[in-house]
Amino acid sequence: MAIRKVVLCDDDPDIRAIGEMSLRDVGGWDVFCVSDGFAALDAARSEGPDLIVLDIMMPLLDGPGTFEKLRSDPKCASIPVVFMTAKAQSHELRGYTELGAAGVIAKPFDPLTLPDELRALLEDA
Q1: Average pLDDT, the chain
Q2: CB 3.0-4.6 Å disulfide test: which of 10, 28, 30, 70 passes with 76?
Q3: Which of 28, 25, 37, 106 has the alpha carbon at shortest distance from 8?
Q4: Within a 13 Å sphere around the CA of 37, how many CA atoms are in the beta-carbon half?
Q5: DSSP per-residue codes, 17-34
Q6: How would you class 64 by CB atoms within 10 Å of its CB: exposed for 0-12, middle for 13-18, buried for 19 or more?
Q7: Percent helix / strand / coil, the chain, rounded to 5
Q8: Architecture of domain 5-124
Q9: Is the pLDDT of residue 14 over 80?
């Protein structure tokens, strides 16, 4: 699957800035950054991304809640989602993939390898 456009959703502005630079400059992708789950839903509907990278812990609407809403929307249901989280214990990671996510990236991530990690997760999904 070719990735051209990514929605990156994280409530931490530093993570968004580093993630955007990584995905844009290293991955060569168009990146749309948003700071909460509701904005991620809007961006998924309006931008039609090839991938959504979604933080787990956010105020208002967390990552799993956003994921559930994406899956219930016919326009967004097939967009692959990769979770990002600082809570990267094996039982938690398993739970996120059991929801149907393409995978999980642990924070802190390496900006130089993030695009390759995402590509690998999508190939394995």
Answers
A1: 92
A2: 70
A3: 37
A4: 18
A5: HHHHHIIIIIT--EEEEE
A6: middle
A7: 45, 20, 35
A8: 3-Layer(aba) Sandwich (3.40)
A9: yes
According to the model, what pLDDT value does residue 20 have? 98
Query: What is the dihedral sign for C-alpha 93, 44, 24, 14?
Result: negative
Contact present, 25 and 54 (Cβ < 8 Å)? no
Whole-number Å distance between alpha carbons of 56 and 112: 22
Q: What b/e sequence results for 97-125 when a residue is b if at least 16 CB atoms lie within 10 Å of its CB, and e otherwise?
A: eeeebbbbbeeebebeebbeebeebbeee
pLDDT value, residue 98: 76
| CA-closest candidate to residue 75, choices 96, 49, 101, 94 | 49
Beta carbons within 10 angstroms of residue 24's beta carbon: 16
- To the nearest 10°, report the CA torsion of 65, 31, 43, 82: -20
